[in-house]
Amino acid sequence: MTPDPDAERFDATCAVIGAGAAGLATAKALQERGVSCHVLESAFDVGGMWQIDAPDSAAYPTLQCNSSRRMTQFSAFPMPRSWPDFPTYRHMAEYLEAFADEFALRPLIEFGAAVTRVEPVPGPGLPGYNGWAVTTADGRTRCYENVIVATGHHRQPHVPDLPGSFRGETMHSRDYRDPDVFLTRRVLIVGAGNSGTDIAVDCARRAEHTILASRRELQVLPRYLLGRPYDQLRPGVANLLPPGMERSLFDRFVRVSAPEVDGQEHSAPPVAPPVAPDLPPLVESGDVELKPAPTKLSGDRVNFADGTRSKVDLIVFATGYDVDLPFLDAQVLQPDGNRMPLYRKVVAPQRPGLWFVGFIDTIGATLPLFEEQAEWLGDVVTGEASLPGRTAMRKWIEADQRSVPPGHPLQVDLWRYNRTLKRERGRRSARPTWRQRLVTR
User: Fold this and answer.
1) pTM above 0.85, yes or no
2) Superfamily for 7-156+321-438?
């Protein structure tokens, strides 16, 4: 790596915000390339959302991965083969702790360091780039050549604004910890993604009545198909087909192999069907009642899109999250309805030295994609891989934002995105560095 003549004015080459899965993968990639790296973590251990006691955790006692062990693990650090096919949140927290120890990442991490401000450093230098000032909650400000945001997008709960008023209790799935909260209650769970269906199963075993409301047809996946974890059937030849054809074939296979849950007429199924093998029997037995989306709150009643009303005393909003970057000024980067103006979901073309790892969703495991993002970013930072110019990157972003599924702007196809990042890592040869490319129109 070519020495940077201005390196002495930086506290480190890179600041990584967050020591969850994305932040740890990034720190490993940078450290292995000899890049000085400082990880800032607001909690007091690694693991992010998988540490159930962490302030921003989205874990709950019955949480299990929706991707299998083999597909979830980092390629550089396999999970123990003695673990179950679908690890629990406890396994994931233990795994990330072991990953940090295996690759000696803890010395790079400053725990209890909540980032409150990230802003460009004014002064002479490349046009539009002079490094980044990072301020933490203790009032300390340090400067870095690069800032990698790896906080993830499961921090700010999204709660829909329903008309009317409600006399009962409401909560978001992020705050769910104890299934006994449902005892003897009439509960409405809004949202039928992975957390919503998990919570509905927990609730049905304790509540007086459980309603699961979804604005789309409820299609669920079993954990196993043909005796194998379902997510191990997609790799291979099928992924060489055009995306629409490959997805259609997989959907048809799932519809034949998985039990039907809902016969009502709804809009298209969600982009990522939840893995919920325990839900269909509860629907069939009447322990979980399916409803379309709620439309109005009225005291202790909730109106639904099909014209029905139900008495409810607890509403759980399993309605996802909004991208939350409170330390960035809106003029630096502003998510628009969770749309992130990032090339390949990583690079902010208008903000040299500002990068993002982990701001993606997919059907299946995200950790291998975090790992691939981090490896590509490490190559870019060290000059081993190059970027296209800003104009080309802006055009890609515009095309990507037109093509993402409605309501799912962070969605990527696991296998195709992985191959795309590998191609980006191959963008080598004697090209200008990332800093030169980012200031070239």
Assistant:
1) yes
2) FAD/NAD(P)-binding domain (3.50.50.60)
